[in-house]
């Protein structure tokens, strides 16, 4: 226990945060430290009690929380969405200011589901070898945006790797009404299904004459994010990733 | 052999017609009779040499061909597309004129793939028991129209059976851009994928809280239509379906 | 509210029972009545306070519970497994003894997931029209039996409907080691997958030359049973099903 | 045309060989050279008329053919199956004898379908990040062996990468009859479906708590091998792969 990673959770009463608290309690080599909620003062989280803080709050609060934690000398794993280049840049600067002898780290990932991250990476790697590629994402009907951010990311990754390989544009003989053909993201058709009973799913279809490759990631519930969160905590605690790191694929040996 | 059904093929050099000629040669209880091409005179097809004519030509020619065959006293199984209510009505009238002692028949089907017909029927039967239903059709990229006629038919069948059961409209919280949500056909979202390597496929997704039913029909090549064509020939030759019959589901015991 | 169906739950603290209690509270036209646990006396459940009792307990207790409730004049919807012909026969006799002026009912179903019931029915209806049919069931790795009872039921239903239609046996050219070909149930190959993250899923594959029909039912969690339970409660409360009824398909208009 | 790769086909009248001849005729940057059949003398294939020979014959003939072509100074792309370590070793020695100033090459692949090769590689890369992994392969019912060689290869690759990562063995609570659980290959369960209408398909399921990754490769017909064959011809003709190379993944940038 003495060598356990001490992990504090910021946003501990939220849906994701409370799942992280449960996952920590069951994980080998980790000890839950503080459970901080929106009403608490973040100042209590310090290197004296915490090796890594996991932050799952809301887009409006996350940048402030991360900057504060960095200032206090704590490394952070961030699961809240809503990050853009400007915000990332602020975190980078805050970390540079702190860079003394230690190895303080911030890790931010748009998606902690390992299956989703792998699907994204594999789709991009495979795309140059196929004539056609389309993306179907499927979610519960309460989701506000369509297509999902993950599907847009996958489509762009496919387009980028095909562009680098100088692939020809994909064949599409559709004439007339194209409403059923979905949204075109960087030349890749993306379809969004909204179905009661589903959670978060993505399917990438890649086709050549006579063959198809299908890569599908299913996230059935919040527990799907926990292996990714625990992996990130271990990697950040190792000290091997000083500074800012973005994306769970960094930690996967692909 | 003496009791074999004698089957002539009209459009025997086309892609579908030549497949029918091959299928007939291999089918039990059937004998290929005449193989008629676009240059031939349809007048050679008569009850003396033919029990059932199978017509696979082009939308512009099919009505004329069928009326001519009916006039000559031959029953017809029609696989050519492009039929509408007006054309069907003309065939009905022509058959009524002929209705003497016999049992002359015309059978027209928009789709002869048994899997596609069953998917369509099952989707309609299941739809009232689910909160959500969407249709994804997937075809080769040379297809000119999107979504497919079959997918539109399935969406309408789903909408109709839900309407009769007074189902609530489907939940969809999408805000903003809905381009990725596909084409809405009678309230049912229909998505069209165009992928090199595919032929003709349809998937119906039905969802309730905590569960999903997926019904998928794959037509890998033209041979998928042959069991349906042979079934129709047998049923029409039986004399049990005098007059005009539309749709392969008529012959399926569902 | 005065006309609400009053529903008591027997086994109210179990995983399924507690889900039923929650579902009742949210259902229109129903009022939760008594919540009975293993320690309570079933004698409290009577027509004075209950229109329908829902019984979700354990195989050892269910027959006794149902007989007792029948004796007290209460109609029952039973979700506990472990029923066989002998036990069903005892319930039938108990109901016959009671048959006076009223319309007391017992309904027993091996599976309340509507998607699973529909997949089973559709597979049996479709099977005679295909050359090949196989069943794949997929469950969480904690499941003790393989294949699942539902998959065995589906395989037998496929075999039965093919037998009635005098279908030829399915082609299988496998020579040598057949361990990978799964378990053969009445001539139908059944495959069982055990995968962390899954709950309960079944896929039926039906094939002809050039085509495939796939019917898949996914049960993601316990909530998938609730629509079926509520449907059964409504049907039993209607008085239209006096005596013993087995199987949710009875209530589906297929 | 002057710089086109001149490609001869050995086994030009076989099913695969004749497909290669057609594919060559349509490929940019390649010119069909000789079409050699079983009755012809291989001695006619020489560097004077051929840059690369493609060999698709039968397991009994392929080693002799390749050794002869190597002796004549011709580089070879081999699609015939049935190779083992002993045969590969003979080819390696033959190539070493020839190693003069040039860059003569032999390339042998058990599977030329890019989708199948990618599925195999991705499954092995992903496997260490999941608790469970199983393989389902699906083929036409005329196939003699079960499971397929490709599925065995995939299962072994999964087992090997999990072994290197010191993964725990997969959970499986099945008690009693395990016939439905398929064949266990190096600890990985492999299921084989045989279905009329299918050609060659493989699906790898990987599961963690709350999530699933599915990787599926569909080979619908022989044309699926042609992109892989043409890729191999280009790579071998480039001179960048002197000596013996095994496996199409060598040429893929993964």
Automatic annotation (TrEMBL), chains A, B, C, D:
Protein localization: Cytoplasm
EC number, UniProt record: 1.17.1.8
Enzyme class: oxidoreductase
Residues engaged in binding NAD(+): 11-16, 39, 79-81, 109-112
Pathway stated in the Swiss-Prot or TrEMBL entry: Amino-acid biosynthesis; L-lysine biosynthesis via DAP pathway; (S)-tetrahydrodipicolinate from L-aspartate: step 4/4
Domain Dihydrodipicolinate reductase N-terminal: residue ranges: 5-112
Keyword Cytoplasm part of the UniProt annotation: yes
Protein name (record): 4-hydroxy-tetrahydrodipicolinate reductase
Classification lineage: Bacteria, Bacillati, Actinomycetota, Actinomycetes, Bifidobacteriales
Gene responsible for this protein: dapB
């Amino acid at each position: 226990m003495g060598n356990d990673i001490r992990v504090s959770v910021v946003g501990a009463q939220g849906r994701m945060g409370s799942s992280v608290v449960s996952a920590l309690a069951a994980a080998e080599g980790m000890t839950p430290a503080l459970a901080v909620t929106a009403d608490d003062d973040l100042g209590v989280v310090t290197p004296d009690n915490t090796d890594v803080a996991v932050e799952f709050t809301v887009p409006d609060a996350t940048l402030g929380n991360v900057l504060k934690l960095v200032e206090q000398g704590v490394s952070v794993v961030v699961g809240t969405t809503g990050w853009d280049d400007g915000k990332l840049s602020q975190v980078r600067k805050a970390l540079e200011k702190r860079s003394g002898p230690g190895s303080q780290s911030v890790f931010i990932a748009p998606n902690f589901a390992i299956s989703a991250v792998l699907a994204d990476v594999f789709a991009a790697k495979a795309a140059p070898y196929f004539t056609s590629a389309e993306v179907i994402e499927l979610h519960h009907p309460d989701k506000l945006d369509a297509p999902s951010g993950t599907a847009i990311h996958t489509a762009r990754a496919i387009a980028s790797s095909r562009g680098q390989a100088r692939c020809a544009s994909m064949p599409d003989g559709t004439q007339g009404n194209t409403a059923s053909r979905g949204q075109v993201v960087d030349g890749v058709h993306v379809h969004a299904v909204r179905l009661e009973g589903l959670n978060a799913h993505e399917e990438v279809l890649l086709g050549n004459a006579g063959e198809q490759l299908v890569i599908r990631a299913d996230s059935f519930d919040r527990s799907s994010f926990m292996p990714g969160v625990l992996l990130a905590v271990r990697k950040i605690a190792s000290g091997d990733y000083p500074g800012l790191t973005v994306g769970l694929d960094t930690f996967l040996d692909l």
